[in-house]
Design goal:
With 700 residues, the protein is an alpha/beta fold. It contains 23 helices and 16 strands. The strands form 2 sheets. Strands 1, 2, 3, 4, 12, 13, 14, 15 and 16 form a 9-stranded mixed β-sheet that branches. The chain has a 7-stranded antiparallel β-sheet with strand order 5-11-8-9-10-7-6. α9 crosses α10 and α14 runs antiparallel to α18. It is globular.
């Protein structure tokens, strides 16, 4: 074991990058970190690779051990990325696609049926560009094959024919096919480095998909992870290697201050029988690698979210939000685990008529939400009258103004950072998309470039602001600097340092208050809809959501025990496991404090407003009842054209003793049977009050 001093640079850079990435995300939660072996060699197999150079740092934050990554040699050759990679003890891996070069001319099959492995070329230079053992890869991944022999500049022979339909169409076309030459890469040095680290009891991190991407499903795993595990164990029978499947799940991977969950799976042992089979070589070795790779792939599926397309993922997430797990509040990591179980259940039961019906209803519900411009969690805030919605609307506008004013200076200072990082990261994404055959929109590179650009631009920008502050103090008239006593006597260095610290503090304030301001902006939309459309529209949407939620919950409770036998035996929170949010800092604590203060003020406002409405409405209801009974008295106040149905004081007392969901269910049944006989108990009193209030409104 190397002495601890040799890890000093590694530990410093790990601490630096974990702080940087921790600032980029609002929350990072982890599950099952206790499964990671505390000692001995460990191979972390991480997927999906959705966030390029950010993914390794998140593992460093939560693994609890030093991890050395396998990184693309092309990335290690870059100036800054290579420097950081070497400081974090990265192991370079030469990838064939990084060494590929465009072949001259165009190629075609000489005789598709008689000699399907012979390739002829027009304008090609096979003797200069191609050697035996290299690969010929057609454009857009249409097909590839290993070169067996180069016969001339315009003729070569493949080791096997290309049978893919797209490859045959390209090679038999009149204009021929464009191609790329991929050289053979000797990975012996890389394997020796990996075996050396594992034999020392260290940890290795590997992304077996071979590169980052932004697809909703994992890419096929490369065989390297199996070769490393079996090869290291074959060379050292006492190694005791553990393979830990690690899943990374992002809510919005490319957005600043988004959320992420890292999930560790059950460690996998390397079976001795597969090691013995691997040592036999030939086809036995390939079979052993395939079997271990299948085991690792299955382990990754238990800690990742995999859907065939984005639409299916959105459907599953909507169903998970509508499901009511015994009224328990779930953590972010438990929500991810529940989504994973929903995906498994959907794959099994997707063809059931009940599931197809719910799928259509969920799609209709999501369409209605998009039409209204709100999110699912905002639906419940729409079941209020215009008076309450208007008061909360004004209250939140006041808080938005306060927080916006506090965040404005820091936001203005950092506007150049936002603009530059946004523009450059999108350009990098377009370039990455053009060079890739697996990326969808290349969102996997955006967060990395935002962080790298900000690391350079933010200190430089603050330095410019500090220099401008020094120039201003030195040249400004005395009245302009009179606010700070003795400012004109300060040294230039002191002014520079104080200005730099002030810029950093203003940015911190903008981060804290700006997040809260954005959350308030998002919450204003449903209040505005309630204010404009009235309570009836919101109640209809709430009722539709509740019915859909009940149907989903009933179906899940019926089908889930067939997949998870423990479903009905334990609470859903116990099944999903415990999680821990390890990324918590003063920014989050400050934000939560302001959020609690705003919410407490809202509660007080709603209580006062509710009491005022109840008092006024009780008098109006009494007047209406008197008119119906022929009282003949004149009304002292005219009811508003907007119909409010606030609960009476007796109803409010009853509400305090029951759950909101119970009240919602009982209120729906009451509306359907207002004239039915009422039973005793608390719910009977609630129904009686609701019926009297409804008749009073009709009389008014």
């Amino acid at each position: 074991m190397e002495p601890e001093e040799s890890y000093l640079i590694y530990d410093l850079f790990r601490a630096f990058w974990t702080r940087v990435v921790g600032l980029f995300f609002r929350e990072i939660a982890e599950r099952n970190a206790h499964l990671i072996p505390k000692t001995g060699p460990v191979m972390f197999v991480v997927a999906p690779h959705h966030n390029q150079f950010v993914d390794p740092v998140i593992l460093l934050m939560h693994a609890g051990r030093r991890v050395s990554y396998l990184a693309a040699a092309a990335s290690m050759r870059r100036l800054f990325i290579g420097f950081y990679g070497r400081c974090l003890r990265g192991i370079p891996v030469e990838r064939q696609q990084d060494l590929a070069r465009r072949g001259a001319g165009r190629i075609r099959l000489e005789d598709r049926y008689a000699e399907p492995t012979v390739i002829s070329g027009d304008g090609t230079r096979f003797t200069e560009q191609v050697e035996a053992g290299m690969k010929i890869v057609l454009a857009k991944g249409a097909g590839q094959a290993r070169v067996e022999a180069v016969e001339s500049d315009t003729r070569l022979r493949l080791g096997a024919e290309m049978k893919e339909l797209a490859a045959l169409e390209a090679l038999t076309s009149s204009e021929g096919a464009a191609y790329t030459v991929v050289p053979h890469v000797d990975q012996d040095e890389m394997y020796r480095a990996v075996y050396h680290r594992l034999n020392k009891g260290e940890c290795i991190g590997i992304f077996p998909e071979g590169g980052s991407h932004d697809r909703t499903e994992m890419l096929p795993l490369k065989a390297g992870v199996a070769i490393m595990a079996l090869g290291a164990t074959a060379a050292n029978a006492e190694l005791g290697l553990k393979i830990v499947p690690t899943g990374l799940n992002y809510f919005h991977p490319s957005k600043f201050r988004s959320r992420a969950v890292i999930d560790f799976g059950q460690p996998i042992d390397v079976p001795p029988e597969l090691v013995a089979q691997y040592q036999q070589g030939g086809s036995e070795r390939r079979e052993a690698c395939s079997e271990l790779l299948a085991t690792v792939s299955e382990g990754l599926k238990q800690v990742t979210l995999n859907t065939p397309d984005l639409e299916t993922l959105r459907l599953i997430q909507a169903g998970r939000r509508l499901y009511q797990p015994n009224l328990h509040s779930l953590t972010m990591a438990q929500q991810v685990e529940l989504t994973r179980r929903f995906i498994k259940g959907y794959d099994i039961y997707r063809d059931m008529p009940e599931v197809r019906d719910l799928r259509e209803r969920i799609e209709d519900y999501n369409t209605e939400l998009r039409y209204c411009g709100i999110r699912d969690h905002q639906v419940s805030s729409m079941q209020m009258g215009r008076a309450e919605a208007g008061a909360l609307f004004a209250w939140r506008l006041v808080w938005l103004l306060i927080m916006g004013l506090v965040a404005l200076p820091g936001t203005a200072l950092n506007t150049p950072v936002f603009v530059v990082t946004g523009v450059v990261s999108k350009r990098k994404a377009r370039a990455a998309l053009a060079a890739s055959t697996v990326k969808v929109r290349a969102r996997d590179v955006i967060a990395t470039w935002k962080i790298l650009i900000a690391l350079v631009l933010v200190p430089s920008l603050y330095s410019v602001y500090s220099v401008l502050a020094v120039v201003f103090v030195r040249r400004a008239p005395l009245w302009a600097t009179a606010a700070v006593s003795g400012l004109d006597q300060w040294s230039s260095l002191r002014i520079y340092v104080c200005a730099w610290a002030l810029a950093a503090f203003m940015s911190y304030a903008a981060l804290v208050f700006g997040e809260q301001a954005i959350d308030i902006v998002k919450s204003i939309r449903p209040l505005f809809l309630s204010l404009v459309l009235g309570k009836e529209h919101g109640e209809r949407l709430v009722l539709e959501r509740q019915e859909l939620s009940d149907d989903i919950t009933d179906l899940v409770n019926e089908l889930a025990p067939k997949i998870y036998p423990e479903f009905l035996k334990t609470r859903i929170k116990d099944q999903l496991g415990e999680s821990r949010t390890t990324h918590a800092n003063i920014i989050n604590e400050s934000a939560h404090a302001f959020h609690r203060r705003m919410r407490s003020g809202e509660q007080a406002l709603r209580q006062r407003l509710g009491g005022a409405i109840v008092g006024a409405d009780d008098g109006a209801a009494d007047d209406g009842a008197a008119d119906d009974n022929g009282g003949g008295g004149s009304k002292t106040a005219r009811r508003s054209k907007y119909r409010f149905s606030p609960p009476t004081p007796r109803t409010m007392a009853t509400l305090n003793s029951i759950s909101p969901l119970e009240f919602l269910t009982s209120a729906n049944s009451t509306a359907a049977s207002a004239g039915a006989a009422k039973s005793g108990g608390a719910m009977a009193g609630l129904r009686s009050d609701a019926a009297r209030q409804s008749s009073a409104d009709d009389g008014g």
